Every structure is written in C-alpha cells, then in structure tokens.
Amino acid sequence: MRKIILLMVAFIAISGFSFATMNSGHQANPPAPIAAKTVLTPHKNSGCNYLVLMDNLPWGSSAVTDILTANGETFSVATSATFPGLDFNLYDVIIVCSDQNPAFHTVFAANFPKFVSFVQGGGSLEVHAATCGWNSPCGYSVLLPGGVSTVEQYDDFNLVGAPNPITTGMPSPFSGTFASHGYFQNLVAATDIITTAQSNGLPTTIQYHYGSGVVTATTCTYEYACNNGQACCTMLHNNLTYACDHSIAAIPTVSQWGLIILGFVLLGFGTFYILKMRG
Are residues 205 and 224 in the same domain? Predict the structure, then answer.
C-alpha cells in the first residue's frame, strides 16, 4: 500500500512539474509545430477582408482564425512562401501571428517594404510580436513601420494603460505565463501605449498612425492565453472585433492646420458679411 501511495505522489509531483514548466516561453523540448495551410480568396469581398499570416499555429493555437470564424468575418490564411506574390490590396487588415518559425521571420524581413506600403496606403497592420516561444527564435527583434522594434523580455504581469477598446474588460495588472515576451522601442510620435510591462513600465501593446493606415502591435501572448485560459485572450477578441472599426484621431499636419484655420476664417468672414448685409 505504501508503495502505491509513493508512486501516486511521485506521479502527481512529476505531472505538476511538467505543467509548471509548460509556458509560453522557449522550451527545451517543445511540442511539434503544427503547420498552417494557405487558404486564399481570389478577390476582395464586400465588408472587411482579413489576411492571417503564419507558417505554424502559434503555441499550437488556432485562436485567431477561430475568433474570426465565430465573428463571421471574411479571411484568408497565408504562409511566408506566398508573401512575394501576395496582393495586399485585396485586404483591409493583415494579421501577423506570434511565435513563428525562423524561416517566417526571414521572409517577413525580406518583404518588409510591402508591409510598409500596405500601411501607408491605408491598411491596418496587426502584429502579434511575441518571439522566443515554442517555435520562434530567441534574440530576435521584430521591425515595424516607422522604425519601431521589439526587445525580448519575459514578464508575468502587465498593466493596462489609457482606456482603449482593445483592453475593454481587462484587469490591471493582468497575468500570464508569460503575459508578454518583450517591449517596444523607438516609438513613433503620438503612439497610443495600451499596455506596459509591470516590471519596468515599458510598452507591450501599442497603436499608431503611419501614412494613411494604422499599426497595432503587441508582445502579449494572445494566442497562448486563449489556449490556456489567461486574461489577455480578451485582448485578442477585442482586437479582432475592433480591427476594421478602430481609428486614432490623426494629428493634423502643418498644411492641414492651415486649411482648418483658413476654413474658420472664411466661415467667420461669411457670417459677419451676412449679418452686416441684413443690417
């Protein structure tokens, strides 16, 4: 009887250790990658058109496509092999998934100008930039339009910043294993900082205008969180629901301010003239 009890204790201890060490961080023996399959629509449909980019399911999670399907959205899925020939003009929102293999990052970097042009032309680019996971390389920096880039850092706790639709319903702080895999540096002016790492206050989720489009990026472990009942899965739901409707109040350029001021001057002059004519 004692032997049976000892065996049961040992089994529970080993199981508990395995569970504790299976987190979103880099694993010595991670589960085998689950390859993504390319499914493309040949032309642009009415409404919002999403393009999901991944070579493998991030942390084995299909959360992104599951949520889009549940929301009734039109979306395509493409692997990095298709990047050079893809017509980004067919899409309104491009989503780059987290935890991608090294080959994906190589091809993403080689085709980076296409992503920049997409945003400058009015597209919405959503980058899930958590690297150093089960499939993705460590020591890697993800580059975003405008010179923004990531620095890897594991944080179990993140804080919610100023109110934003992406963090609706989120606690602050929120936790995960890990809640984020890095932070952003070299931010574009007027960037909206949505979440930060509790350890150092550096931004882990951001959103900013670039050209006529919008970049939304996070190092939070969206997909892992959805597979493991963690808080920032709520952010992924919000982000995908909000992707085609969000807008940041753009800061007018000097020339735009000139037109605005001229408009007010003409309106004032016209009103004065009409009132004067009426006596």
Answer: yes
* Closest by Cα among 235, 162, 231 to 196: 162
DSSP string, 78-110: E-GGGGGG--GGG-SEEEEPSS--HHHHHHHHH
Residue 204 sits in the same domain as residue 266:
no
**Tokens standing for residue 262:** 């001229």
pLDDT score at 247 = 45
* Range from 47-61, 162-176, 256-270 carrying the lowest mean pLDDT: 256-270
Beta strand segments in 113-218, E: 124-128, 149-160, 174-185, 192-197, 203-210, 213-218
Regarding whether 137 and 257 lie in a shared domain, the answer is no
Kind of pairing, strands 74-78 and 49-53?
Answer: parallel
Q: In what order do the strands lie in the sheet with 93-96?
A: 74-78, 49-53, 93-96, 124-128, 213-218, 203-210, 192-197, 149-160, 174-185
- Determine whether 244 is exposed, middle or buried from the number of CB atoms within 10 Å of its CB (0-12, 13-18, 19+): middle
> For 111-169, how does the pLDDT look when each residue is reduced to its tens digit (9 = 90+)?
999 999 999 999 999 999 999 999 998 999 999 999 999 999 999 999 999 889 999 99
| The two three-digit tokens of residue 203, written as one number | 């931004």
